[in-house]
Amino acid sequence: MTRIPTGDRDIIEQAIYLPMLLTVLNRDLIVVNTSSFKLKKPYLELIEETMKAIQKDLAEVKRYLHKNNIKVERLKSDDAFTMYMFVYKGYEEEHNYFNPRLRNRTEELLRYYLFERYKNTHLEKKA
């Protein structure tokens, strides 16, 4: 059983997923740059602005982890699972994450950062 409260666990998981998102987007930048798109600039701007938003959120996560003396470390990975160690208030916990779940959650977050985060600001402007 984990000693980590749900709120802190969510932040710890952001420390796992947000760097994955940045890796995916960095690869996408390379693909767009080397592609034969006629108009690359809008795609590049979308990816770059998305990366800035993720980097901003990741900085907040890192500040929170540092302030609360929480550490996250990737230990090992195989075809099915990736193991992380969380150090929380002096206690070490190892957690296995199913790789397809990591991929699916990363995809969900990518969808959020690319599209859904704009829905709320679009609705606020109409009101």
UniProtKB/TrEMBL annotation:
Pfam families: YhjD. InterPro entries: YhjD-like. This is YhjD. It comes from Lederbergia citri.
